[in-house]
């Protein structure tokens, strides 16, 4: 199990698979470069990332604000008038301003992250950050503050490829999480169980591997986790912490939150639960029990360090097996990012991008529940599939016309949600569709087979299977020679409007 | 550029075209070529095992229309307690004078702009459920909308919608048009474990939009798009059928040909191919109905009218839909509410009146039940800007040929308030439970995850 792929089976298609799963795909040049490195170095380069972590330049507004002072300022302003109605009006205007600001910033944050995914030289780091976002799924709808969402994203990124235990501990102190799962309302007299329960059920062990008592006792250990609104940071409130003895997962002691996390990590079920989720995200659904045994053992042997685990997965025969390659339905985020990377183009526009996330069913910083996104086949319905096919046209065919008008109307219809906000502050040019002249040579224009195979190499990494290839050629047979840009665009749109393009 | 019908195209291409044209593209029969045929067989088998499963049978099954009033409709100025002193006191500016109210009895009346709804009420076609809400009301638009759409408790976070849960539990194997939402985005109420249902703002946008245009006819892109988006085995079966000289292949014969049901949990590629064909078939169906139907009555202008007349056309055209979802926005009336709310009530009343008349003319009014909801009502007291702020409980309308008309539930007190808000007397999930059990005839507990005592809405 999980033996390394023999070097003689390493080929370009496998390099493309690695780049798809450990990142967001890329143009042929990137695949070639990865292929040339050889399996071991290719995997290492992705898992280790660049020698220096890419600087994450945050959006301009992403810095702590003194929330308490803002509130006090409004109260002071309101106090200047004796008229109750005017006081209310001042408060209301302030609330409205905050809400507009928040909606605009959260939208910017989503665009900022997708832009980072598109341009990064460290794609696995962003893919892992997306994985952890889905795993510790936190929604801005309750957190209501873009800076705190950014901070959580940064925490995921900093801990993404490190020690899983350190990540869980960091998440337990993460302000967005503390708001999301009501940790700040937990006190010794009334421990709130929300965080303790999800910690065990969704974040570490999975159902069936803990008792109700483990939850209530752990909830006591996670008291004292507070926020400092002046600096927008975590605050440890020792006097709010239950210092008494607790009984958790068979252990007994004056545990605090970190101690509970250590007790959880000591259970093999934790390693099994996490490695299964990692395998399903990066490789394939429903891994065999034997494979899971090996993964669990690996994760425990390397003491919950992510790098050795990922190294082993990405180098393994199973990772490159037929039931893994080209069988995963791209998530909406993956679809958007990899499409832009594949065609070496910008996103259509911030406006379209944000709408696309909604329409395709995955808005970053806004998962449907603490369980995250279902993923897999749940990404696809008749409507979302058709939406993918139509959005493809905006990347390669044209960025005007009925589709864009439809999107504009739909955004307007969203009403209070999207349009009340400030215009985007993240700079992104309205680029126009991909520049096809850049990757279509005169030889390709003169030879339909060469064009179809060349584009398939870019899009699918391998030639399209017989029936599809024939349809692409038949399509070109209806067009004049040599093949012009408009025809290339139509062909690309056609190639993307297929079941196959939804897979990687 | 030469037309793809010209004589110098390869022979194989012509053959393929001929078969595609007769099968997928040709007559209205195009969409009897179903991806769902085998699903239907599966469903029939499943029905024996589980009576909760139901199949949309098109012409005679009940239809639910859910109308969302987005932004928080002011319930107190919709169903007006005109005789209550507390109402006048709380709303010196916004209160609707008793002589303008459309009186239902000596204490309650409808907003004056709701005259068409009042007429339907008098004819016994409209019920009004008073004081609907939920415990620990949330005053955030998004969160409260989510609570209504997912039928969750205020503190609970559910990802799936209540209608999605209905589709999951009771409509397995149904045509994807089992749920139709009018709008660019599917509502969260449709979110499901196995997503189904379609959404479009305009029928002409519920299709593959491409820019490869041949003059006056389908471009080559469209043609090959269709070829690429059907399961290989169906293409092969049809080809052999047509090759065998079975001219009527697209009708009954194809049922047997396609019969082999896919293994449950089949590959992602198979699943995508089937969904792609579903999308095409649904799109063709919707476009065909949009082309050949028109409303039987004149609707007043307005976006809600456009949406409801579209629903009316889909019903007239026999789309096998169980649930339609439409939405009207603009109810967040914090400032200068009176003219804005008057306009909204006018749009609501006019559109509902026309929709009812349309369905009557079609002979379909008895098949339809429409319910309205809003994420919350508004504060009892007006604010300083001539508007109202986010509140809690509010009334819901129920309309249809079979509904139990009149007032349901208990009118909320205007003096016994919770944090300045009306207290609910009916949980909105009791309304959902009633609709599910009495109208859609499914066990509500399966869908809502819990038992809620139903009201007699039928």
Plain-language structure description:
Chain A has helices at 12-21, 28-37, 39-48, 67-79, 84-119, 123-135, 140-143, 146-159, 164-172, 175-180, 194-204, 212-221, 257-265, 268-282, 289-301, 306-315, 332-342, 350-360, 382-396, 402-413, 442-446, 448-460, 466-477, 485-496; strands spanning 225-228, 233-236, 246-248, 251-253. In chain A, helix 5 (84-119) crosses helix 17 (332-342), helix 19 (382-396) runs antiparallel to helix 24 (485-496) and helix 22 crosses helix 23 (466-477). Chain A has 504 residues and is mainly α. Chain A has a two-stranded antiparallel ribbon. The relative contact order of chain A is 0.11. The model of chain A is unreliable at 415-419 (pLDDT under 50). In chain A, a hairpin with a 2-residue loop joins strand 3 and strand 4. Chain B is built from 14 helices and twelve strands. Chain B is of the alpha/beta class. In chain B, a hairpin with a 5-residue loop joins strand 3 and strand 4 (109-110). Chain B has helices spanning 11-25, 37-49, 85-90, 115-122, 141-150, 162-170, 220-228, 232-243, 249-258, 268-292, 303-316, 337-362, 428-439, 444-448; strands at 63-69, 79-80, 102-103, 109-110, 126-133, 179-182, 198-200, 323-328, 368-373, 394-400, 406-408, 426-427. The longest helix of chain B has 26 residues, at 337-362. Chain B starts with 10 loop residues before the first helix and ends in a 10-residue tail after the last helix. Chains A and B meet through helix 5, helix 18, helix 19, helix 20 and helix 23 of A and helix 5, strand 7, helix 7 and helix 10 of B.
């Amino acid at each position: 199990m999980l033996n390394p792929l023999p070097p003689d089976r390493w080929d370009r298609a496998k390099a493309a698979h690695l780049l798809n799963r450990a990142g967001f795909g890329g143009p042929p040049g990137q695949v070639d470069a990865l292929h040339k490195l050889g399996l071991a170095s290719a995997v290492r380069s992705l898992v280790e990332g660049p020698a220096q972590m890419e600087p994450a330049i945050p959006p301009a507004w992403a810095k702590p604000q003194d929330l308490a002072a803002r509130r006090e300022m409004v109260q002071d302003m309101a106090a200047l008038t004796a008229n109750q109605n005017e006081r209310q009006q001042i408060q209301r205007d302030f609330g409205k301003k905050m809400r507009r600001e928040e909606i605009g910033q959260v939208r910017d944050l989503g665009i900022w992250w997708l832009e980072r995914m598109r341009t990064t030289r460290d794609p696995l780091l962003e893919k892992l950050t997306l994985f952890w976002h889905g795993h510790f799924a936190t929604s801005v709808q309750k957190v209501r503050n873009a800076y705190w969402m950014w901070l959580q994203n940064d925490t995921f990124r900093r801990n993404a490829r490190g020690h899983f235990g350190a990540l869980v501990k960091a998440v337990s102190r993460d302000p967005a999480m503390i708001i999301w799962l009501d940790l700040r309302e937990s006190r010794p007299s009334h421990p709130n169980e929300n965080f303790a329960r999800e910690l065990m059920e969704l974040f570490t062990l999975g159902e069936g591997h803990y008792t109700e008592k483990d939850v209530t006792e752990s909830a006591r250990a996670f008291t004292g986790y507070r926020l400092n609104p002046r600096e927008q940071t975590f605050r440890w409130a020792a006097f709010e912490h239950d210092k008494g003895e607790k009984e958790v997962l068979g252990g007994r002691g004056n545990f605090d939150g970190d101690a509970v996390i250590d007790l959880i990590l000591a259970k093999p079920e934790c390693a099994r639960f996490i490695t299964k989720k990692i395998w399903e995200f990066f490789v394939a659904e429903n891994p065999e029990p034997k494979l899971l045994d090996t993964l669990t053992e690996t994760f425990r042997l390397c003491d919950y360090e992510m790098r050795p685990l990922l190294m082993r997965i990405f180098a393994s025969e199973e990772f490159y097996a037929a039931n893994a390659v080209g069988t995963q339905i791209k998530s909406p985020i993956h679809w958007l990012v990899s499409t832009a990377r594949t065609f070496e183009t910008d996103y259509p526009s911030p406006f379209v991008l944000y709408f696309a996330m909604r329409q395709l069913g995955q808005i970053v910083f806004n998962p449907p529940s603490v369980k995250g996104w279902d993923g897999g086949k749940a990404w696809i319905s008749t409507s979302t599939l058709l939406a993918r096919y139509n959005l493809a046209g905006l990347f390669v065919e044209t960025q005007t016309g009925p589709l864009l008008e439809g999107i504009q109307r739909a955004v307007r219809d969203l009403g209070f949600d999207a349009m009340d906000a400030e215009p985007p502050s993240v700079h992104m040019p309205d680029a126009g569709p991909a520049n096809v002249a850049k990757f279509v040579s005169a030889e390709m224009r003169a030879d339909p087979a060469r064009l179809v195979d060349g584009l398939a190499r870019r899009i699918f990494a391998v030639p399209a299977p017989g029936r599809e290839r024939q349809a692409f050629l038949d399509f070109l047979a209806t067009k004049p020679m040599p093949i012009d840009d408009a025809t290339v665009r139509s062909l690309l749109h056609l190639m993307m409007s297929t079941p196959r393009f939804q897979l990687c | 550029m030469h037309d793809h019908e010209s004589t110098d195209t390869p022979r194989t291409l012509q053959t393929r075209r001929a078969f595609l044209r007769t099968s997928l593209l040709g007559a209205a029969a195009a969409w009897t070529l179903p991806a769902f045929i085998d699903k239907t067989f599966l469903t029939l088998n499943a029905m024996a095992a589980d009576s909760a499963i139901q199949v949309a049978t098109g012409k005679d099954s009940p239809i639910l229309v859910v109308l969302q009033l987005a932004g928080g409709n002011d319930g107190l100025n919709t169903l007006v307690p005109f005789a209550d002193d507390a109402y006048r006191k709380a709303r010196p500016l916004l209160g609707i004078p008793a002589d303008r109210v459309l009186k239902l009895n000596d204490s309650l009346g409808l907003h004056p702009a709701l005259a068409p709804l009042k007429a339907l009420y008098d004819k016994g076609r409209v019920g009004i459920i008073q004081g609907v809400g939920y415990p620990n009301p949330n005053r955030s638009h998004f969160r409260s909308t989510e609570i209504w759409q997912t039928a969750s408790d205020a503190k609970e976070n559910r990802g799936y919608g209540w209608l999605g849960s209905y589709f999951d539990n009771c409509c397995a194997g149904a045509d994807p048009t089992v749920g139709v939402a009018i709008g660019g985005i599917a509502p969260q109420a449709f979110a499901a474990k196995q997503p189904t249902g379609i959404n479009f703002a305009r029928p002409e946008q519920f299709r593959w939009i491409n820019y490869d245009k041949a003059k006056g006819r389908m471009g080559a892109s469209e043609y090959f798009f269709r070829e690429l988006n059907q399961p290989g085995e169906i293409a092969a079966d049809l080809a052999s059928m047509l090759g065998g000289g079975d001219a009527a292949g697209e009708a009954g014969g194809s049922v047997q040909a396609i019969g082999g049901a896919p293994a449950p949990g089949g590959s992602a590629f198979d699943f995508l191919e089937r969904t792609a064909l579903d999308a095409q078939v649904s799109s063709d169906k919707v476009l065909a109905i949009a082309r050949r139907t028109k409303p039987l009555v004149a609707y007043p202008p307005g976006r809600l009218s456009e949406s409801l007349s579209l629903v009316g056309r889909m019903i007239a055209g026999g789309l096998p839909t169980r649930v339609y979802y439409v939405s009207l926005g603009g109810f967040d009336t914090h400032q200068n509410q009176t003219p804005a709310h008057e306009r909204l009530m006018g749009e609501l009343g006019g559109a509902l009146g026309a929709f009812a008349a349309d369905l009557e003319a079609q002979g379909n009014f008895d098949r339809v039940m429409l319910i309205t909801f809003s994420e919350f009502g508004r504060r009892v007291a007006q604010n300083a800007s001539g508007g109202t702020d986010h509140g809690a409980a509010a009334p819901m309308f129920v309309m249809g040929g079979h509904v139990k008309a009149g007032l349901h539930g208990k009118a909320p007190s205007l003096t016994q308030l919770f944090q300045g808000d009306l207290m609910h007397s009916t949980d909105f999930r009791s309304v959902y439970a009633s609709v599910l059990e009495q109208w859609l005839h499914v066990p509500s507990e399966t869908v809502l995850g819990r038992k809620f005592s139903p009201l007699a809405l039928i």
